[in-house]
Amino acid sequence: MTPGANQPAPPESGARLCRGGKMSVPIEWLGFAAITLSALAYLPQVTHLIKERCSAGLSARAYLMWVASALLLLTYSIARKDLVFISLQSYQAAAGALILYFCIRYRGQRCEEHGGEPQRSRLVRTEESV
Ligand SMILES: [Zn+2]
Q1: 13 Cβ partners below 8 Å, 6+ apart?
Q2: Is residue 17 part of a domain?
Q3: From the CA of 99, how far away is ligand 1's center (Å)?
Q4: pLDDT tens across 4-59, in order?
Q5: Which residues contact 53 (CB under 8 A, 6 or more apart)?
């Protein structure tokens, strides 16, 4: 009897993790777990960038290449009909584009923690300019 004969095969690879000779978790779940971790890994960077308006240590050129890479791999994944990589590259392209946008918008700005001026001085400057 072939593994998974009494279960419908997943649409693509059908690969599954085996445990004790029994078929268990579809291998795609590993991919979706990795996507979840990738999504969570971006959060501290995006949060700091937007909340503090601090682009310290970020390279717009690097993020431009990350976005281009993600779009190319997204195209490849769509052609291969690989749902895990379509999801991953879609997220990578969107997150990279978001970081790129704010990286350019806040270019040269640093928070106090990264050697910039204290927040208060930015508020004072804003009040003075009104
Ligand atoms: Zn900072």
Answers
A1: 27, 28
A2: no
A3: 14
A4: 445 554 445 556 666 666 667 788 899 999 999 999 998 999 999 999 999 999 99
A5: 106, 109, 111
The closest alpha carbon to 92, from 67, 75, 72, belongs to 67
Domain count across the chain? 1
Q: Which two tokens stand for residue 64?
A: 């431009």
Q: What are phi and psi of 19, to 5 degrees?
A: -140, 115
| Cross-strand partners of 26 | 16
Distance 117 CA to ligand 1 centre (A): 11
CATH number for the domain spanning 97: value is 1.20.1280
- What residues have a C-beta under 5 A from ligand 1, the ion? 52, 54, 56, 111, 114
In a domain, 18, yes or no: no
Q: Amino acid letter at 50?
A: I
Mean confidence (pLDDT) of the chain: 83
Asked if residue 92 belongs to a domain, the reply is yes
Q: What is the extent of the structural domain holding 50?
A: 43-129
Would residue 33 count as lying in a domain? Answer: no
pLDDT tens-digit readout, 54-95: 999 999 999 999 999 999 999 999 999 999 999 999 999 999
